[in-house]
Design brief:
single chain; 372 residues; alpha/beta; Alkaline Phosphatase, subunit A; two-stranded parallel sheet; binds zinc ion
Length: 372
Amino acid sequence: MKSAAHQFPIAVFIFLAAAAALFGQGPAGRKTRNIIFVMTDGLRWEEVFNGAEASLTDKQKGKVDDVAALKKAYWRDTTEERRAALMPFLWSVVSKNGQIYGNREKGSDAYVTNGLNFSYPGYNETLCGFADARINSNNKFLNPNGTVFEWLKQKQSFQGDIAAFGAWDLFPYIFNAERAGFLVNAGYAPLTAIPQTPRLELLNRLKAETPRVWDDEPFDPITFYTAMEYLKEKKPRILYLSLGETDDWAHAGNYKEYLNAAHRADDYVRVLWETVQSMPEYRGNTTLIFSPDHGRGKAEHNKWRDHGEKLPDSKYIWIAFLGPDTAALGERSHIAAVTQNQIAATLAALLGEDYPADVPKAGKPIVDVLPH
Ligand SMILES: [Zn+2]
């Protein structure tokens, strides 16, 4: 009897351990084993939560040639319909099964803490978990800070591939790619790290040969489909993708292309999500994170085009989470503010790792995103 009583808990323990291994459960009871992290540069919370803005769907203020056509695409009478027309995946699957932070009109603030409200400081804050006064320009200088990905890569407990794809050619600097030791493919650089398929060959050709509207980044589809090729071939545990057009078209004052870029970003997130759910390596154990690097100014006086230190409103962002460990609380309202410097620790915590224990200046995880 005595020995049986002792054996029973051991048998239960072995069973639970086997079950956890079978279902790919990570440490601390987390189901998340893989992360898909998509950022789209400078997409305002205003469009994410309210859809197309009427005052900018306009010839003068938004350089819209065919106002009727743009309204047909994105204008709807209610806020709910409008935002669903602009970002259908976010406002169906993510809002139903995940969480979305940052609707200021519903008492949910999300903001960057770096005080500069532009790209390199925002990517550094997001990926490293803290603002750094030394990161004060968008110049090509190697990040002195390690990102949470570099930290994970060095951990014994984290085994697996990490890869980052960025439209913007600054990402090899932001990640300090050589030091970090994982693939960072960005800007117009061809992807040569995996076998050349006809599809990848064509993508590399398009990268090299299509006219360049911006010297520092190609159009988003080229970056996105390149990342997709890598995902299918290498099945990384962490796939990072940063899209750039939402920022570029806003700076150009082109509201139609800005909205189209936001719409495409949402659709790329959908394709990524549906693709990973169709792959046994990822199904049921992958968490998606979706956010911008900064916000933008208000529509008045064309401030929506810009962002930065002089536009305090451009510190406000939005952050979305979808995955097996995150309660389906949908669009968050009337809650404490969350900050960009919490994303890195939240990402690590989803994988069962305590990032702020090693990097005390990093923001703490957003607790509501984690299982209780
Ligand atoms: Zn910008």
